[in-house]
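Newbie here. three chains, one complex. Structure please?
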Amino acid sequence: MTPRRLLVAALALLAAAALLLSFGEREPAPTERARVDFPTHMREPEAERSERRATLTLPAPPPEAGQPAPAPQPRDPFLVGLPVKPGEPIVVFEANALRHSRLGELFVGCVLARDPRAFSGIEDELGIDPLKDLDRVAFVGDAVVVSGFFDRFKPERLERDARPEPHGDAGQLWIPEPGPEGSAARTAFALWKDQLLLASTDPEDLRRAIDQLEGRAPVPDAGIPEDMAYGEVYGIIPGAAARRFFGSDARGLGERLATVASRIEVHADATSDLAAVVRVRGEDAAGISDLARSLGAALSVARVEAQATDDRQFAELLESARVVDGEGALSLELAVPAERLEAWFQGCGPAHTAVAPAEGAPGDGGPAR
Amino acid sequence: MTSSPGNVLAVARDLLREARARRWTLALLAGVTALLLLAAFGLELEVVDGALAASRFFGRPSHGGITAADVALRPLFEAVAYMVFYGGTLFGVLACADFAPALLAPGRIEHLLSLPVRRAELVLGTFLGVELLVLAGAVYGGLGLALIVAAKTGVFGWAPVAAAALGAVGFTGVYAVMMAAAMVARSAALSAAAGAVVWVAGIVAGNRAAIAPLFEPGLARAVFLALTAPLPRLSELGRHAARVANGLPLDPAQLAVQAGGTALFAAAALAVALALFERKDF
Amino acid sequence: MLAIEAKGLTKRYTGAFGRNAQDALRGLDLAIPRGAAFGLIGPNGAGKTTFVKALLGVVHPTAGEVRLLGGAPSDPRIRARVGYLPERLRLPPAWTPLEILESVSRLKGLRPRTADLLALVEDVGLAEAARRRTGGFSKGMKQRLGLAVALLGEPDLLVLDEPTDGLDPLGRVHVRSLLARALARGATLLLNSHLLAETERVCGRIGVLVKGRIVREGPLEALAPPPAAWRVRFEPGADGAALQAAGFTNGVAGAETTYRFAGPDAAALNAALDRARAAGALLAELSPEGTDLEAVYAQAVKA
């Protein structure tokens, strides 16, 4: 090839390079995985939500000698009305917020795809639309507390098996007749001001809850304070109760957790990614550190096993798992990115785009509807 | 007589043999080895049953949580990948600037041209030999670091090796220009300077979409885009290595575009080098 | 058949923008037959090295044609049959002679055994340094190695530029023997050397290159003028008067046994030698004056 031809070839190759690179290239793909926003503290929208919910004014405690009477602090009736028992776990689900989250949309779509009457059946029977009337659901030991709009509540179904009994200023109980000896305890229900619906096998729980709401009984310290009410799921699990959550293959870990931990806080955020933080507090700092390492190891091993058995969902869940150890507490962080959630629910029901609840609509702490 | 590919390989082999004996090459490899030793002794990683309990560099914690070892090591692998990619290509510019000028040295080139080797085979053989040298150096550094981390944590990451391979791909564009510069004037300094310019330009080209808005719309921006259009997207190739480090999937189509574009650019520069070499009297 | 054929070979060097043009070769014509030992001589800047490079394709002729061994210099198959020693050969200093020969063998498509390469190294007098790095070689050693490279594969054409440069007298003798061996097997030799005595001893044909042209060319005997006189050296003890009577004169100061016989007539010289021997003188050496290559060179350059 003559030098002149080589130069012409060089120009042609340069032009080809320019065309290929300019028209073939796309936006640079990200080099890092998207950071997950873990619910480690109360954020501003949650603080505003908490403020809006603080509608209950309880009588102020008696002042100390020589001190002026403290101003009564408004409280969240839902949190006040939790029938907390020492040693029992408490978990709250922000049902309305979850309903409108990405995960909720996917979940509801999946359920309705399998059974279109899954939710309407409840509305027909009880007069409660689970998708519209519910705000929050709390599990407190064996009791369940639900907040929302219950003005269309149909007690007839309950009154078939239970006798209605008013309690306090605004409470109504439905206590079932005891069953034959040896049979399982029956569930009692309570309704307070069309806002709170409670259920428990122990009617005393329900009476106590209404008493707490109406200022006749002190609100237990072991409950959930307002500044802990952030995330779409939150709760407190006493250390001793933690062993219940571990199966036989992780019993050892559960026992260690129960021994070292005095209190376990749980927070989960599902607005886009599904991110959870489990904070374990205890008196024994060395024990906590040791537990942190064990937990980290267990997660790592579980991830390796999930990868080995091709359990992709579990492996993805553990992808961002992290244990942070410090100051007498450890935090376990777990997350599933939003696009992975989409993939998990792929093929199960129509795809929905999560829509943020509008002002005054369910999910922002105000009344549902 | 040996075939053309055989002559190209013979020239490449001779170059590698010569490189092996050069003090400069040995010094650079010693530097890479020193870095590896630094990592081996300075990187303190505590691994407990597959989980990364803590990581320390020179005694100071560099990671605040306990997570699976391979997840925790992603930032380290990413840093190593970038180091191998950019360090490897820069190593090539510094270590290999002299090969083409040495080929053209009086007394040497007359002898080579009297042999039954075509001028194009000399150019291509030198180019191939340098590429293999750079690839070997980058793989040495990358694989070395990957093995050190693997020995300490039980986690082997391919990112450093991928970075070495991608660096060698990117270096084809850089060295082809260095060869062309050597054909213009037999000077290792000029060759190295040309390589450095292309190295920087390649990094800029890989970020041209982000940089273009800094120019005034109109002629200035159009000139910038036109000048950077044919350049190898070095920084983009580096980002592919970072994706491997972070366990993210590679985009094969984009990788093919970047590698193909780089190859076309290198071919263009080599064609210029050949054209200059063919016309040259010695 | 011709080993080298050049017709109208021209090479013009120009500076930037075509200025300062210099003609190194000006329409050079030359034909060297196969098997010949051809010596190219000329003053500095005559174009000898340019001519040699043009033969091998190292420089591109501006005009004219060159053929080597019946083919084009650009043909690798032709170059495979050529052995070249450049004026200033530079080889990788970190390599050993054996490694250099192996490398050149590969490029020439040869597959010699190591023993053959060692034999070649020994031939050029580097047996003890065969596995030493050439960076520590003397100039003479490097020259020997360059010669070995040129002789590799028994090429049909040897082009040697100053092959004995840097060699001691014994080394030069050794090189001459190697070249004689190559010529004996039928190789053609083109020798470019400043050392006229060396060229005279090795080459049967001479070309004088002046200002880019061949001004004299042919067998040495044909180029040399008839001797103006003879230089005769007798063994010590010869009768000076008898020698003078025989027709010899003392021509060389400080060399009492060296005489001079004027005139080109060989018959007269023989008759004078007979008379000298009859007077008891013993002839030691006889050489013509004014018929060596130096005379040819001087004559050609002045012309």
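Moderator note: Chain B has one domain: 4-279. The first helix of chain B runs from residue 4 to 21. Thread marked as resolved.
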